[in-house]
Amino acid sequence: AGAEAVKRAVQLDAASRFQESLVCYQEGIDLLLKVVKATTDEAKKRHYRQKISEYMTRAEHIKKHRFTFLSDAKFHKQIRIEENATGFGYEKLFHEYLTEIVSEVLVQDPYIRQVHQASGYLLYNFLRFCEMLVKGPCKVKTIHLCTSCDEDSGKSQQMTVLEEIKQSLSNYGVTLIIEFKSSIHDREIRFNNGWTIKIGRGLDYFKKPQGRFSIGYCDFDLRPCLETTVDVYHTKYTKTV
């Protein structure tokens, strides 16, 4: 399996499909490392280690090449998510921009305040987003949340849930800083490697699941989406959030 993964990586690399090849290189390297650990043949171990070193060198080169390309200050990418489209979970949408150097994240969304919204579950969505950050590959240490305070009956629940998320994140060495602003309107997510992602619907671009035990309830990649637009920007001069 490891050999097949790196073979595919080399093919994609040759075709200049660098993002896809990087994923295959990383998968192949992980599998080959397991082979090295399991084998007792020293000659085979040396061979595998040499190949792993070559693949790791190439993968690192691709990362640098990709980041140089993506770090163009004039970069702008727009993604159109169609009504009922699937395959747009947070990992798929943000992975390309969550490089290893990301340590701080700003989430600005005025509606991270209720568990049950008309179209989704805003606080649950924010929790899922935080889970993605904890999993890496970035090393996030601080998450800044700027949202509005629920002034109605949901205020107590909002405070309780956000405090629970804050405490849970602290168990993973991540600090959640919460700021309430009644005047904010725009929704955007900023990483301190310079990337800004603006989603028309914020984190709540998924349709409400049909039930708690329906496909797509847990896996956002399988959840139908609401129509929205995602704009991605980069500036070399973005300050740490």
Name the quaternary structure: single chain
Q: State the major sheet.
A: 7 strands, mixed
Strand content: 15-25%
Q: SS-based structural class?
A: alpha/beta
Number of helices: 6
Please provide the ordered H/E string of secondary-structure elements: HHHEHEHEHEEEE
Shape, principal axes of CA atoms: elongated
Order of strands across the main sheet: 1-7-6-5-2-3-4
- In total, the number of domains comes to 2
**CATH uppermost class of the largest domain:** Alpha Beta
Rounded radius of gyration (Å):
20 Å
Question: Between the first and last Cα atoms, what is the distance in angstroms?
Answer: 41 Å
CATH-derived architecture of the largest domain: 2-Layer Sandwich
Plain-language structure description:
This is MITD1 protein. Residues 1-72 form the MIT domain. It comes from Prunella fulvescens (Brown accentor). With 241 residues, this protein is of the alpha/beta class. The chain has two domains: 1-68, Phosphotransferase system, lactose/cellobiose-type IIA subunit (Methane Monooxygenase Hydroxylase, Chain G, domain 1); 76-234, 2-Layer Sandwich (Endonuclease, Chain A). It has six helices and seven strands, in the order H-H-H-E-H-E-H-E-H-E-E-E-E. It has helices spanning 2-14, 18-38, 42-70, 90-94, 122-135, 155-170; strands at 76-81, 104-108, 142-147, 175-180, 188-191, 195-199, 228-234. A seven-stranded mixed sheet has the order 1-7-6-5-2-3-4, with helices on one face. Helix 5 (122-135) packs parallel to helix 6 (155-170).
